[in-house]
Amino acid sequence: xxxxxxxxxxxxxxxxxxxxxxxxxxxxxxxxxxxxxxxxxxxxxxxxxxxxxxxxxxxxxxxxxxxxxxxxxxxxxxxxxxxxxxxxxxxxxxxxxxxxxxxxxxxxxxxxxxxxxxxxx
Length: 121
Prior knowledge:
Radius of gyration: 18 Å
InterPro entries: NA-bd_OB-fold, RNA-binding_domain_S1_IF1, TIF_eIF-1A, TIF_eIF-1A_CS
Organism: Thermococcus barossii
CATH superfamily of one domain: Nucleic acid-binding proteins
Function: Seems to be required for maximal rate of protein biosynthesis. Enhances ribosome dissociation into subunits and stabilizes the binding of the initiator Met-tRNA(I) to 40 S ribosomal subunits.
Low-confidence stretches: 11-19
Helix content: 10-25%
Largest sheet: 5 strands, mixed, barrel
Strand order of the largest sheet: 3-4-5-7-6
Strand content: 25-35%
GO molecular function: RNA binding; translation initiation factor activity
Shape: globular
Oligomer: single chain
Mean pLDDT: 81
Family: Belongs to the eIF-1A family.
């Protein structure tokens, strides 16, 4: 680990990447699904095409809405609601481009799923 002295504030950490970088990618847990955002509806609502072939109207919880932007085409994890399971859900996590590449390499999602062709497998 390399430490550099910043201007006014204490220490800043710059990590040197050596060898293969470890990427921690959260995967859907029980009941959660991969999804791709199809349409932004406003007020924190999105239409998401899920891996089971259904299009759910999903909301972005406040803590995610304030932290990160969601765009059409982003890969997300969807938690279906207990009521209206096939129609509604919450967006739990948004993947970065690097994480999506990792998911594709590991076979967790397919290119067809991203482009709207066949579903997951």
